[in-house]
Amino acid sequence: MTALTCPEPALISRPVTYPEMEAFLAGLNQPGFITIQPEGQSHQNRNIYSVRLYRGKDQPRYRLLLYAQQHGNEPAGKDALLFLLRNFSENPTLLPADTELWLMPMINPDGAAADTRRNAAGADLNRDHLSLDQPETRALYQLVRRVRPHIAIDCHEFVRDSEDYASMGWLEWPQIMMDTANNPFFPADIYKMGLEWCQTIAQPLDAKGINYTRYYVGGVPPDEEQRFSAPDLDDARNGIGAFGGLSFIIESGVRRSRPDPNADLGLRVQAYLAIFDEFFFNKTLIKKSLKMLEKTGDTRTLPDFVPTNYFWANRDFKISEVKVIETQNNRERSIATANFMTDLVCKNSVTRPAAYLVDAQNAGPFKNLLDRHQIDYQIIKSDTSIEIESARLIRFEDYTDSVYNRYADRVLVSRLPNSEKTFRPGSLLIPADGSQARRVILLLEPNQMYGLYQYPQYRQLIDTSGVLPVHRLLQKQE
Ligand SMILES: [Zn+2]
């Protein structure tokens, strides 16, 4: 197995800036091997670059996309990608001949320049993947639709020394973590394969002395809750996973409370490169993944039911061990907790509809949305009476749950009895079939607890009687 060259950690003292990155990219001139192009522009007109590396002659067998810095103040992934690029540009034969590599090192250049999580419009790009409101996320999807990567990896950083942990005298144990796309409407084989990656890479990372575990979030054990990453579609890993490939998120740990959080940036870059190594050179897992994806594709028959309410739980009331590091003596310690939610539970589902319908009066914003996702729809030309199922809003949860934080906008609806509704010219019919079926359903299904209505522009389309703007056209019964 070939290994990527790791930089000397001490030589990395600060992140590469946007102008430095641009200069570095401009200096790479290897036609036929490296192609660099802007996929779009940020709010402040900085380029969002993609880099393609491929040295094979025929169609590539394996398409890998690595992208980073959706959160501007999380630079490590980008720095790792630039080292990767340097590795391959200095030694092209290092890149396996059957691998087409795509890099998008800096998705949020404005946030990077300002050292902020959000973009210049104040949006959290990694919660924008349902609405695709932001030019930065749209640039990413433009590439994803064109390339259809077999494997896509989103690179982030998490804080190891939050106040909560520090108050216990602890540091979070992991230096780097990874999780897979996990929406329950994705094919089971994809989730299984994703988990196999997350588990298999533990061994090589351990051998390199890097603390690695599957990515989890939450508070301090034993009293607070931990859980694996959110199964909803508003983040990149699940949003891109909906295209049918394998999709991952990596989080490297930063110690933000240090005087210079980037003093150990080199260690984070090394940890990243150790994981990337596996995605280039673990031939067994790559081969197995490609074989599985060929079989699964995105046209495979969908299940007859759509999960609408799902969450992490501790199914058998298991006791889990969460490792921490005692900061005073640098010793590892295991904290037993029953609050680690390790099982994805589905609480409710609805039958899969044949299509969705949007009335003419709401067609504008939905056309926009569907166009941004490049989802096909039909425009109804004359008054058409159709039997549909609608959903009525019960309420939004407007409190912020400290554990479920981002989920303050949970929407509770009741399903209304089937009714006959006349759709006026200009109404939209969005078929939930063919290769777009999974994405259509995950985007539009009105019974989803966490979906479009977390965004104000869709929330305001709910009418005064509480009926949601998207209606279900049910499958014909035999
Ligand atoms: Zn992040």
Give the arrangement of secondary structure elements:
Layout: H1 18-26, E1 34-41, E2 47-53, E3 62-68, H2 76-90, E4 99-104, H3 109-114, H4 135-147, E5 151-159, H5 163-167, E6 170-172, E7 176-180, H6 188-200, H7 202-207, E8 212-214, E9 216-218, E10 226-228, H8 236-241, E11 246-254, H9 265-281, H10 283-296, E12 305-313, E13 320-326, E14 331-337, E15 340-341, E16 343-351, E17 355-358, H11 363-372, E18 378-379, E19 384-388, E20 391-396, E21 411-415, E22 419-423, E23 428-431, H12 437-444, H13 456-459, E24 470-473
Parallel strand pairs: 3-4, 3-5, 5-11, 7-8, 10-15
Antiparallel strand pairs: 1-2, 2-4, 6-13, 7-11, 9-10, 12-16, 13-14, 17-23, 17-24, 18-23, 19-22, 20-21
Helix pairs in contact: 2-9, 6-10
The chain binds zinc ion (ZN).
Structure notes:
The protein is of the alpha+beta class and 478 residues long. The chain folds into three domains: 300 residues, 3-Layer(aba) Sandwich (Aminopeptidase); 37 residues, no CATH class; 122 residues, no CATH class. The chain is 26% helix and 28% strand. The strands form seven sheets. The protein has an eight-stranded mixed β-sheet with strand order 1-2-4-3-5-11-7-8. A four-stranded antiparallel β-sheet has the order 18-23-17-24, with helices on one face. It has a three-stranded antiparallel β-sheet with strand order 6-13-14. Strand 1 and strand 2 form a beta hairpin. Helix 2 packs across helix 9 and helix 6 packs antiparallel against helix 10. The longest helix has 17 residues. The chain is globular and about 70 Å long. The termini are far apart. The protein binds zinc ion. Zinc ion binds next to loops.
